[in-house]
Amino acid sequence: QVQVVESGGGLVQAGGSLRLSCTASGLTFTSAHMGWFRQVPGKEREGVSCINWTGATTYYRDSVEGRFTISRDNAKNTVYLQMNNLKPEDTAMYYCVVVVAMRYDYCLAGTFGRGTQVTVSS
Q1: What pLDDT digit, counting tens, does each position of 86-99 carry?
Q2: Which of 81, 102, 104 is CA-nearest to residue 92?
Q3: Which of 2, 16, 99, 122 has the fewest C-beta atoms lying within 10 Å of its C-beta?
Q4: CB neighbours of 12 closer than 8 A, spacing ≥ 6?
Q5: How far apart are CA 2 and CA 119, in angstroms?
Q6: Are 102 and 52 a contacting pair, CB within 8 Å?
Q7: Cα-flanking dihedrals φ and ψ of residue 75, to 5°?
């Protein structure tokens, strides 16, 4: 079955950086759109960034545009999220997802991983 496993979360001060990684299995990664969602307790999950199977199309939510960069390495079945200039409001559980559909302005997630916690202190 499809499995995605995240890593790279942690505690960082505001203004710092983290890189999340996600390795996928059980699917043809080179044909899969991938992405990252996040969730704060008591709130709905929200799309953070997604990337299509070629890497040519990406989606970013407005609040992370210019600070976060999504990328993929199809040879390693891995997708990355480089997060720079982190803010306390970025604190959340971050989930790697297999994307069902996407464009530059939206991203619809299918399979979710278990998540990795990102905490940004002020």
Answers
A1: 999 999 999 999 99
A2: 81
A3: 122
A4: 18, 86, 118, 119, 120, 121
A5: 28
A6: yes
A7: -70, -25
Tens of pLDDT, residues 24-82: 999 999 999 999 999 999 999 999 999 999 999 999 999 999 999 999 999 999 999 99
Asked if residues 56 and 109 have their Cβ atoms less than 8 Å apart, the reply is no
Contact in structure between 18 and 83 (CB atoms under 8 Å): yes
Amino acid at 30: T
Q: Can you read off the two tokens belonging to residue 8?
A: 């790279």
